[in-house]
Amino acid sequence: MGEGDRGADRPLTPAERFAGVPVARLATVDREGVPHLVPMVFALANGMIYSAVDAKPKRTRNLKRLANIAANPHVSVLADHYEDDWSRLWWVRADGTARVTGHSPQALAALVDRYEQYRSAPPAGPFLEITVTRWSSWSAARQPH
Questions:
Q1: CB 36 within 8 Å of CB 22
Q2: Contact status, residue 82 vs residue 136, Cβ threshold 8 Å
Q3: Three-state secondary structure call for residue 100
Q4: What pLDDT was estimated at residue 141?
Q5: For the structural domain made of 3-138, what CATH number should be given?
Q6: Spans of all domains in the chain
Q7: What pLDDT, in 10s, does the model give residues 6-65?
Q8: How far apart are CA 18 and CA 36, in angstroms?
């Protein structure tokens, strides 16, 4: 959603700000509570965050994040903005419950729509579907940019 898609005097909601970044960080924990943090590309559609295991190089397709979600589906996803002008710093965190699925037409459509790279090489999955239960945010500016 671009700036022109909303009222000029209305600040961005946390979800709108979150959806505007190209990459976020996914936090999972294993059975023992040990955290695991990875960058991820994603799409936000219909209140869900979607991601997929794709063809980018990986040591294995048996990813730690997938095993962690199977053991504990509670996740956090963080999007943020940094620049030297600290008055423009912000972050948005989505807490929720993740599900791993082998097939997700909704996730595939949202990801292909968002990332040009996926149009020529759609991700085969598995897919992550994250139901957001809580949005948290912070901005250095009184009014979001």
A1: no
A2: no
A3: strand
A4: 85
A5: 2.30.110.10
A6: 3-138
A7: 556 688 899 999 999 999 999 999 999 999 999 999 999 999 999 998 766 556 556 899
A8: 21
DSSP state of 133: E
Longest dimension (CA), the chain: 47
Q: Specify the length of the chain in residues.
A: 145
Which pLDDT score is estimated for 65?
95
pTM, rounded to two decimals: 0.87
| R_g over Cα of the chain | 16
State both tokens at 87. 């008055």
CA distance 123 to 60: 15
pLDDT reported for residue 7: 57
Summarised one tens digit per residue, pLDDT across range 91-116 is: 999 999 999 999 999 999 999 999 99
Look at residues 75, 76, 77, 93 and name the one whose alpha carbon lies nearest to residue 139: 93
- E strand map for 1-145: 24-29, 35-40, 43-45, 48-52, 74-81, 90-101, 127-139
Do 40 and 27 form a contact (C-beta atoms < 8 A)?
Answer: no
SS3 state at 117: helix
| Total Cβ atoms within 10 A of residue 10 | 9
